[in-house]
Amino acid sequence: MPIAVDIDVMLAKRKMSVGELADRVGITPANLAVLKNGRAKAVRFATLAALCEALDCQPGDLLRWETEATTANGKAQD
Predict the structure, then answer these.
(1) Tens digits of per-residue pLDDT, 44-58?
(2) Alpha carbon distance 4, 78 (integer Å)
(3) Is this structure's pTM higher than 0.90?
(4) Judging by beta carbons within 10 Å of its beta carbon (0-12, 13-18, 19+), is residue 76 exposed, middle or buried?
(5) Residue 74: left if φ>0, alpha if ψ -120 to 50, beta else—which one?
């Protein structure tokens, strides 16, 4: 998927668990896992705003554009 969601990075910076973030945002841990694992087809602006508020960050801290030549771990393919 061309848009990657970097929730793990912000969780580590904030020393927060997935369960705690899910509670603060008001979504289930399962739905948060869908976002974290790149399986989400869309994200509501309200959810993105709640994530940013809970993690004290900007949308650009959570979302990253990946070109087709970029793998999921951020390294260019040969």
Answers:
(1) 999 999 999 999 999
(2) 20
(3) no
(4) exposed
(5) left
CA distance 49 to 54: 9
Domain coordinates in residue numbering, the chain:
3-64
The answer, yes or no, to whether residue 70 has pLDDT greater than 80, is: no
Residue 14 one-letter amino acid? R
DSSP string, the chain: --EEE-HHHHHHHHT--HHHHHHHHTS-HHHHHHHHTT--S---HHHHHHHHHHHT--HHHHEEE--TTB-TTSPBP-
* CATH code 1.10.260.40 for 3-64: yes
Q: Does 73 have pLDDT greater than 70?
A: no
